[in-house]
Amino acid sequence: MSSSAMAIDDPFLFEDYFPSMVERLGTDAFIGELCNGFCLLMDVEKGLITFESLRRNTFVLGLEEMRDEEIVCMLAEGDLDGDGALNQMEFCILMFRLSPGLMDQSKRCTDEMVIDENNHVASLSYVNNLV
């Protein structure tokens, strides 16, 4: 049975595309895409993914039917500092944790990541190019 046929039979089947994205794009571009995803979902004024910004973007995510309690749980899953929102670092860590394939490859990717003083994520090669 093909994976598309299995997805039709099981609406909760999760296909992890992150490992193939890292392989195809490379670590720098993949981290850039994660950061772009963060920017898409964040509250522009606060620079964080908040309950309100995530609620506004449920349509973009294809999750229009999501209940408020589920959004709160999503935020709590990645909220490492307890402020009720996700900064860029927390978002990237959460994305890695939610990807079984990336967890297997995470050592290689995280060795190439740098967190700056504002908790922004960059790749090591990008930082080296700035110096």
Helix/strand layout:
Elements: H1 3-9, H2 18-25, H3 27-41, H4 51-56, H5 68-78, H6 88-97, H7 100-111, E1 113-115, E2 121-123, H8 124-130
Antiparallel strand pairs: 1-2
Helix pairs in contact: 2-3, 3-6
Brief summary:
Residues 66-101 form the EF-hand domain. By secondary structure, this protein is mostly helical.
Distance between the termini: 51 Å
**What is the CATH H-level superfamily?**
EF-hand
Can you tell me the number of structural domains?
A: 1
Structural class: mainly alpha
Order of helices and strands: HHHHHHHEEH
The CATH architecture can be given as Orthogonal Bundle
GO molecular function, one term: calcium ion binding
Pfam family, one: EF-hand_8
Protein name: Pinoid-binding protein 1
Keywords: Calcium
Protein model, in words:
- By secondary structure, the protein is mainly α.
- The protein has one domain (17-128): Recoverin, domain 1 (Orthogonal Bundle), CATH 1.10.238.10.
- It has 8 helices and 2 strands, in the order αααααααββα.
- The protein has a two-stranded antiparallel ribbon with strand order 1-2.
- A hairpin with a 5-residue loop joins strand 1 and strand 2 (121-123).
Summary tags:
131 residues, mainly alpha, Recoverin, domain 1, two-stranded antiparallel ribbon, 2 strands, 5% strand, Pinoid-binding protein 1
